[in-house]
Amino acid sequence: MSAAIGQEISRVDGPVKVTGAARYSGEIALPGLAYAALVGAGIASGRVTAIDTAEAEGAEGVAGILTHYTMPMVNHVPLLPSLLGGPAPGETFFPVQDDVIHYAGQPVAIVVADSLEQAQHAATLVQVSYAETASVTTIGQGRADAYEPDRIFGGVMPGRTERGNVQDGFAAADLRIDAAFRFAANHHNALEALTTTAAWDGGQLTLYDSCQGIKAVQLTVAALLGMSPSRIRVLTRFVGGAFGSKAMVWPHVTLTALAAQHVRRPVRLAVTREQMFTSCGHREEQEQHIELGAARDGRLTAIRHHKISVTSPFDDWAEPAFGVASQLYACPNYQGIHRLVRGNTMTPTFTRGPGEALGVFTLECAMDELARQLGIDPVELRLRNITDADPNTGHPWSSSGLRECLERGAARFGWARRSPRLRSQREGNWLIGTGMAAAGYPVAFFMRTQRARAHLYADGTAVVATAAQEFGTGMVTVLTQVAADGLGIDLRNVRLEFGDTDLPTAGSPVGSNGAMMVSAAVHNAATAVRDQLIALAVSDTQSPLHGADPARIIVAGGRMTLAGDGKDANGGETYASLMQRHVMNDAEAIGSWDPPPLDTPYGLLTFGAQFARVAVDADLGIIRVLHMTGAFAPGRVLNPKTARSQLMGGMLWGMSQALLEGNWMDPRTGRWASASLGDYLVPVNADAPKVDVELIEVEDPVTGPLGVKGVGEIGQVGSAAAIANAVYHATGYRPRELPIAAEHLLPHLPPGPAAEA
Amino acid sequence: MRPLGYARAADADTAIAMVLARPDSAFLAGGTTEVDLMRQDVLRPGLLVDINDLPLTGVDDLPGGGLLIGALARMSDVARSAGVVARFPVISQALLAGASAQLRNMASMGGNLCQRVRCSYFRDATSPCNKREPGTGCAALDGFHRGHAILGISGTCIATHPSDVAVALVALNAVVHTRGPGGDRAIGIDDFFLLPGDTPEREHPLQHAELITAIEVPAAPIARRSVYLKFRDRQSYEFALVSVAAAVDVANGAVAGVRLALGGVGTKPWRARRAEHSLLGRPAIQASFAEAAGQELALATPRPMNAFKVELARRAIVRALMTLTNGGAR
Question: Measured between CB atoms, which of A624, A673, A686 is closest to B120?
Answer without folding.
Answer: A673
